Structure formats: C-alpha cells, structure tokens
C-alpha cells in the first residue's frame, strides 16, 4: 500500500482500484492515470484478478504491488466463492473504505466481497455490454444495481444503465476518460518506432482497434477503400491492432482488391507518431464505449470519421470536430472520406476543433478531479 501524508488533520481515504489485469487497454491506462493523479489524501492499493500484463512494470514504477485474487477459469467454480471471502477479509484487514472496480469479471468478485465487508463500492461501466449474452448481461446488471454508485464514461452508457438496467439515475455519474495531452505530444515527437509503408504521398486514414471482436467492423473500412479505388480516389489505410480476426480481414482485403492500400501494422507503441502521418482517423465500430483511439486522433488534430454509437457522439459533433456516420454503412463512410479529401481547409478546421475539445474537456486533470469529487461524495455524502 502506498502511504500518503494525512491532509488537514483527516485520516487518508483508504481506496482500492480493482481491475482484471494490466494488459494494454483503455481501462488499464485510465486506472494508471488515476493512480498517478489522485491527491495525497488517499491511501491507495491496487488489486487484480491476474498479476500480469505489460503495464505491470509501470504500475510497480508508481510504487504499487498489486494484490492478486485469481479466478483460475470459470466464475462457476468453487474458487470464486473462496476468493470472494478472501477478498472480504482483505478489505476488513486493510480497513478499506471504498473500492472502485473497473470490469465485468472483477465486479463479480468485488461487489459481494464489499457487501460482506461493509466496504463502499463503485462499479465502472465502460461499454454497452455488447459482448455479453443475455444471461451475463442480467447478472452484470444485478451486481451493478447493488453498488453504492456507478461510473459510466459516456452518456449512451448512462442511458442504458438507467433505462434498460434499472439503476437509479441519482446513482450514476458520467466521467469521460482523460488524456494527458503533453505526454501524448511528447510521444508524437519521439517519432516512429517501426516501419510504415510508402504510400507515395497519397492520403492516409488511420484505424486503431483490436481485431478480436466483429464489433470493430474493420471490413467496412475495407469496403469503403474499394469503392474509393473504383472512383479513382487514392486513399491508403493503416490498420493498427491485432487479434484472431486479422487473417480473415487480410483475406477480405485481398478479395476486395485493396491489399496493397490496406496496410495491417499489428500492435504499435507509437500510435501518436502514426497519427501525425495520417490525413484523418476513423472508427467504424457497431458498438463502442468511450474510445481512447478516437480521443488520441482528436489530440493529434485530425478530423475523425466515427459511427453514431456509444461514446463516439460524446466526442464528435458531426461537421464540427469530424463526421458521424451510421454503423455498418460503408457507403456513408465513403461520403465522409470524400468530403474530407475534397475540403482540406474544412478538414483542418475540424481537426483543430477536435484538439481544442480534448484540451478543454478531456484533460487528465479534469478526469482525476471528477473522480476525486465522486469518491468524496460517496464516502461523505453530507459534506
């Protein structure tokens, strides 16, 4: 546990951040930013289901050694109950006042353990539960309703929680993700850390997303590229990300005749520098939470083309900070690309507005301050 000085004579708040692991992902990055930014009136501890992932090194550099509560497979095993009881004892032993849990699997352990221990619990809901089946969605909803408070990172998620899952509106807060703009700019200045294809000066659209789930809809981008090629419009795409769907997507690119302009770059650690090489960004998901990829494209000053799902419309106002299209409509994506290419001055204006929105509304400081205020409210509602 990181020990902090007491502030203004009050005992520090004993707060646990609980997440599944520290593999690379938007949730894990946001947890690290909270750990960096929360003020000194907290005694912070980190717990995980699995002490693994490339970001564990960063976590330890910040002074945290995570406490592990492994599931060891299915939630339906006897081990789950054992870990719930062990976690409840750990909460009591460490006199934990509040725990903020950030993902589905961790929620299944943390909420019942917190109730047993008498610890306040905040559940983070960071997507539209689009990857759950009906039974899992109902269980997640039940555990969410048991929480003392719920944090969504997009207005669409808040609406789902209140209107579909029955969480009282006064127990849901929307706190957008935060982005450290100076650090992002510094990473961009470091330059590329790997090769990029030579596009011969042609415009480039950048897409950053995993290739694990069909919901990311990279195939719609490939179809849009094929249409533009047929029209004689040169546009290359850099597809950043990896996963089991990559071979299927590469085959689809070949079938559409765009394998030479759809460049699969795999996982990259130099995304800010890649954005600086692009003309525009795109996210064509059919469901989405609050996309860090869109935020990073905006931070790079690019006009973003996004689908009208989830948190995308919290970030992009059509015609102001980018363009918004309906999901699974490659023809609309073509029109958006065509417009940005035909109106470069307007595209630059949208990109500048997008960066200013990140600076003003999505700063890391704002995200941390709003979490701090929420933690104080949940623990001391009368103050």
UniProtKB/TrEMBL annotation:
It holds the Pfam family Glyco_transf_4. It is an enzyme of class 2 (transferase). Its EC number is 2.4.-.-. One of its GO terms (molecular function) is glycosyltransferase activity. The keyword Transferase applies. Residues 24-181 form the Glycosyltransferase subfamily 4-like N-terminal domain. SUPFAM superfamilies: UDP-Glycosyltransferase/glycogen phosphorylase. Gene3D superfamilies: Glycogen Phosphorylase B. Keywords: Glycosyltransferase, Transferase. This is Glycosyltransferase. The lineage of its organism: Bacteria, Pseudomonadati, Myxococcota, Myxococcia, Myxococcales.
